[in-house]
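Q: What would this chain look like folded?
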Amino acid sequence: MDNARLLPKFQVFLAGPGPYNVGETMTETAIDVAMLESWSAAQCPFTIAYSRQTLDDIRLSAVDAFSSLPGGGTEIGGVLLGKYENERLTITQHLPLESEHAFGPSFTLSPKDQTGLEELLDAARRNFSDLQPAGWYHSHTQSSISLSQADLDLHKRFFPEAWQVALVVRPSPGGSTRAGFFFRERDGIMRTESSYQEWVLDEPAIGQLPAGMPPSSPMPMEELRVAGPVITLPAVAEASAPAITPTHETRSLEPEVPPPPPAPEFLELPVRRPRPRIGVVAASAAVLALAAAAYQTRANWLPRHAASAPPVARTQSKQPAPPPAKQAAHKETGASKPAVPSAQKPPATPAPPSAEATLRKQAAELQKKAAELTQQNTDLLKVNAELRNQKDELTKQTAKLRTELAAQTARSRGLQQQFDQLRQQQQRRRLANQTAAPLP
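A: My prediction, written as structure tokens:
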């Protein structure tokens, strides 16, 4: 396979002497020095140079995978390609590795994935004669920029050279993406808990040229020649007018997503429900009604029973006669008989109130209380009916708000799809400005 077909086309603007025309489009198989950025650390025995376009493609893939699923999405990875010459590692290409994610969303390779990595490394060595595997990369969605023990074992197995590196990319919900290189130090030890130097992968501006490249000069315009007579018009004095400075309005491609409607107060505050007192009041009213009925029955039955009862005979108490011995003694002494007092009636006492009147009074009081309880029961039934009406009204409002919320959610999804389409168009425009030919 021809390496020139695998590498993208760049529109290179050459400055200085040479047999090149300004704005000439050519297939560049070697990355220009002006399109490279360098990374170095005091502990690293070599300098790392990387293509900005390569790392930007990795960043876009990591961000897309990060947004694919809620809660962090999935992690991606692949192989870095480049050259190592004169203690300088130059990374110019990358090959993504398709993972089956057998252990979850993290980039942990299964035996099938490891076989695929071996085949990918063999294909890179065969198809890229001027490039070699410079290391590997993968993204983190939950953990920090570091290497786990599984990552370290994978690096030792598939990338044993002292100059081969590992790149970790960490996208965040805020939009910024951080990255860091990991390498073997001079003593062969590899630091895994963090990178010596992290940096932010900024999104390049659309149409921005790499540093060191001059902008293209406009093409010379040919002189316009008109056949026939030439009419010279007199010069017209121009009126003095204030200079108008053109203003460029920057419009964002991101659509404005309306905020969700606020939740109503009745959904946030609990509705106080009345205590179940209606049953107690109804039971009390029933007991009082039974008591009043029993009393009324007794009041009707007691006079008839008293009238049918026989009268009781009243007898006067008589004084008993003295014994015969005392009578003889009186005869012998000639004493006169003591006068026997006549029977005296006891003093008249006020008659107690009639039991019938007392019972009637108590029955009236019970009926009055029963009427009050009945009225209270009626009021509670009205309150219960009003509460039921309020509950039905709140239920209707809740259903209406849920319907509106569902409509807002559907509208937000449509706006999100439009935003994704605009972002893809923006990426295509950016890549089209960086490359010679637009992407298909």
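The chain has a mean pLDDT of 74.
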